[in-house]
Amino acid sequence: MTIQILAILAVMVGAYAAAKAAKLSVELGIFAAAAAGGLAGAFLKTPAIGDLGRHLVEGSTTYLDVILVFFTATLFMTIVNESGGVDYVVRATLRAFGKTRVLALLVLMIIVLVPGALTGAGSVSLLVVGAPVALALGRLGVPKKRVAAILFIVAGLSAAAPPVNIWAMILCAGTAIPYVGFEFTLGIPVLLLGTFTILVLGWKKDPAASAAGADLAPAPPGMTWWRVLLPFLVFFGMVAATRIWPFATPIFGLSLEFAAAAAVALVLSPKRIAFLTLARDTAKRLLPLLATMVAVGMLQQIMTVTGVRGLMSFAVISIPLVLLFILLPVIIPFSEGILTYGGAAIIGIPLIWFLDSIGFHATVVIAGLSLLWPLGDGLPPTALIGRLSTMVSGYEGSYKDFLKATWLPWLVITAVAMAMIIFSSKLAFLVKWSM
Amino acid sequence: MEVSEARMKKTVLAKAVPAAALLGLVLWGGLPLLRHRHFDIPVVKGPGVTAVLRLSEFSPGLKGTSGDTNVYVLQGRDPGGKALIMGDTHANEPEGMLAAVIFIENAIVEKGTLYVIPFFNNSASRNTRPGDGYPLYFDVATDWGRRRFRFGNRDASPLDQWPDPDVYIHYPDRQLLSYIDVRNTNRTWPGRVDGPLMERVTFGAMELMRREKIDVAVDIHGAETMFPVTNCIVAPDSSVKIATLASLTVKAMEGFENHVEMSPSGFRGLSHREIGDHGPSLPFLLEAPIPFLDQPTGPKTTRFLLDGKDPFLLSLSKKKKLFVPYGEDGWPLEKRVGQHTSVTLEIFRQFSKKTAARPIAVRGVPRYAEVVKSGVGRFLADPAKAAPGGVVMN
Asked: What domain range includes position A371?
């Protein structure tokens, strides 16, 4: 069976490579890999050829919710941007903190951490506050490449931060472990690593970058603090209400929360915004990212039904423990790069059961792993958060150079995460503190 | 002018062809999903069935929704204790549903009353699992042909309950659970009368237990071979004595592995925890290994679902990485279903011994050895041969 599955995997890789050689986009490459893998699998009736369409269509809906959140969040921030709110906030932030650079950097880090920590999605951090923070960092003299690197790492940390960490939730749900005890176990490393990242990447001031960022557009007449803040208050108010009064508040869902905030921003904008044109342009801008999510879902489904996914999981579980620890810093981020959240289920669930059974502390291991997964959001083929970071920061250079700029925080995060996994039993006190 | 028109035609064609191909793909792939959602499963009213209720009779908010489901009542000749059996709490663990159907179609209750809900999470049983490539149906071979069942998902369909929250806050303990668990009927106990649909489902079952004074509640599941909590009965303090006796008895008398796991008091929302904490019944959650749900396996085919044979799991078993003994013969459906019927009957027997005033006596239901020998299909009735009005669609 292994040889048959490896042959299917080879067909998938070949199809992706061929699509890249033909200069097709990432999403079409992933779709080609899924379709070719499905056809190769059909020779062995895994799946039957008649079921291939169903698997592709069903797989395409895997990330439907994420797609809706991406669209509504981007639409919201685009309206705030169009209304002049972003320029207004950046000017005010720099006026308040601009003279104490370190303090300004730390405040900006916290601003990026909050939306992701509350929603579990680094993408939300980037879509909601990425653009103004990128502008502010530019004004503080951080070049665009390093701005994109900061946003990528801190947004990733925000997704791992408590109270909502989707990787940890998937693992807890899959391994029947309660989602408790993560506040300090994740909160402390996230804050330390976030501080390290923003200081390392933002410390050095580049006068050229500062000058380039100086030409901020003036805020439009009529823009006031309450016009900027009220839409955000609506969003965070809806998030907070479902937490504070969970049994008296209906479940809004992130998409509706963003849509409501967008509607308020639209009404409060001091200048008229052509909503339909804006929505169409936003959809166009996001299309490659959304199409990637659709295609990744298809790929995941085909990988499962053909056995490729199971073989990957089997390979990881079969590795001897020492070798596993050496390889985890590569395996975990790459599983995220290929399968996004699917990696947590495929590799994470059996891994947690295995490590738990030989005496590791499951909650600390989950926390450690969930620091590694966000790094994979910068890796191809999906590179979702990496691509979003370059998009909102306006960085137009090579993607490879952007990734290279993240090397030091990447290394330190990996070291911390691995230490948490290997010494999980010794760090169990963090879980006790959190309970 | 002609050149420009030709170019326009080419552009239209370049857009129309992929659009038509996409539409074709959506129809090819979408129609089977639509059919699966609307595929009803016939269940034959066996000799012991005295009434068929709807769960909405206990939770009015379920009426007219996909959360509503059939409750089969098998009232005994003599009075006695009362038991509830639930299958398809997780609709991707079909051994529970099949064990429940075997009870409905075969059981004759001599003392006490049985309430059986074979499709507890009806919405999940009409759902699929995007990204995981599950089969839509599976067929069980019988003496008279093949009987087809829907294969569902662990969670209710988002078509029935949507959107999900960012995090699910358990009622009433406020414990944070994964957002997915808001659609998982083994996390939404004890439920609320006006909560999200799945909380209304578990509330309905709680109300049934409270109103009918159910003594024993059995929630039947399947678990991965890599999951430590398998081949077992999960029970809280209140049920642990009966669970231990039942477990030891089946192990000694029927020769299959079984043990007891204590229900953790700090993990909320599960049937084995909340049923006892919020109602009069003694809860028991049954687990048997279902290799199909493990992650490190080959293709997810119907055959694998039924025979439970997988070379990767066999290799992991040799490396001692599974929690159950696993050999060349895998872990077939008949073993899983047989374990569940035996353990359920043994729980009833042990309960009746302990509570002589409320006995539950059932005959006609096959035990482990019989199901393994004859197959599950041997105990499934032919809906075509049922008496008029003797078939209920689910």
From this structure: 61-434
B81: Cβ contacts below 8 Å, ≥ 6 apart: B111, B112, B113, B215, B216, B351, B352, B355, B358, B359, B360
Low-confidence residues of chain B, pLDDT below 50? none
Examine residue B311 and say whether the peptide bond preceding it is cis (omega within 30 degrees of 0): no
**Do B220 and B76 fall into the same domain?**
yes
Task: Kindly state whether residues A24 and A75 are assigned to the same domain.
Answer: no
A156 and A304 belong to one structural domain: yes
Residues A343, A335 contacting (CB under 8 angstroms): yes
One domain, residues B346 and B239: yes
SS3 state of residue B115: strand
Instruction: Examine the domain organization and report whether B231 and B309 are in the same domain.
Output: yes
The tens digit of pLDDT for each residue in A5-60 reads 999 999 999 998 999 899 898 889 889 999 999 999 999 889 999 999 999 999 99
Number of cross-chain residue pairs from A and B with Cβ atoms under 8 Å apart: 189
Rounded to a whole number, what is the distance in Å from the CA of B133 to chain A's nearest CA?
A: 5
Q: Which of A229-243, A285-299, A334-348, B141-155 is most confident?
A: B141-155
| Cut 0.80: pTM above it | yes
Q: Quick one: A76 and A28 in the same domain?
A: no
Structural domain span for residue B16? 1-38
Question: Mind listing the pLDDT tens digit for each residue in A227-245?
Answer: 989 998 999 899 899 989 9
- Show residues of chain B in contact with A346, CB under 8 Å: 295
Check which CATH number belongs to the domain holding B75 and give it.
3.40.630.10
The answer for A 186-225 residues in CB contact with B (under 8 A) is: none
A342 plus A366 within the same structural domain: yes
Query: Last residue of some domain: A36, A60, A84?
Result: A60
State whether A148 and A42 are in the same domain. no
CA dist B393 to B42, B74, B122, B368, Å? 4, 17, 12, 27
- A57 close to B30: Cβ distance less than 8 angstroms: yes
| Nearest residue of B to residue A239, measured between CA atoms | B166
Same domain, B14 and B147: no
CB neighbours (10 Å) of residue A144?
A: 21
Name every residue whose Cβ is closer than 8 Å to that of residue B278 and which is 6 or more positions away in sequence: B189, B190, B206
Residue A1's pLDDT is: 85
pLDDT at A214: 52
Asked if residue B205 and residue B310 are part of one domain, the reply reads yes
> Residue A435 — very low, low, confident or very high, per pLDDT cuts 50/70/90?
low
**Residues paired with residue A432 on neighbouring β-strands, in sequence order:** none
How far is residue A48 from each of residues B135, B147, B149, measured CA to CA in Å?
11, 21, 19
Å from B299 to nearest chain A CA? 4
| One domain for residues A39 and A134 | no
Does the beta carbon of A248 lie under 8 angstroms from any beta carbon of chain B? no
Whole-angstrom distance, CA of residue B154 vs CA of residue B90: 4
The candidate with the shortest Cα–Cα distance to A417, out of A333, A340, A297, is A333
Residues facing B176 on adjacent strands: B169
pLDDT band per the 50, 70, 90 thresholds, residue A309 = confident
- ipTM, two decimals: 0.94
**Total structural domains in chain B?**
2
Co-location of B3 and B69 in the same domain: no
Q: How far is A104 from chain B (nearest CA, A)?
A: 30
On whether both A172 and A293 belong to a single domain, the answer is yes
The predicted pLDDT at position B170 comes to 96
| Residue B78 structure tokens | 């003599």
Determine the average pLDDT of the residues in A85-108: 83
User: Could you tell me the end-to-end alpha-carbon distance of chain A, in angstroms, rounded to an integer?
Assistant: 46
DSSP A164-218: --HHHHHHHHHHT--S-S-HHHHHHHHHHHHHHHHHHHHSS--HHHHHHTT-PPP
Q: Do B130 and A59 touch (CB under 8 A)?
A: yes
Tokens 């016939």 -> residue: B42
A212 confidence band (pLDDT: 50, 70, 90)? low
- For residue A111, the tally of other CB atoms under 10 A from its CB is 20
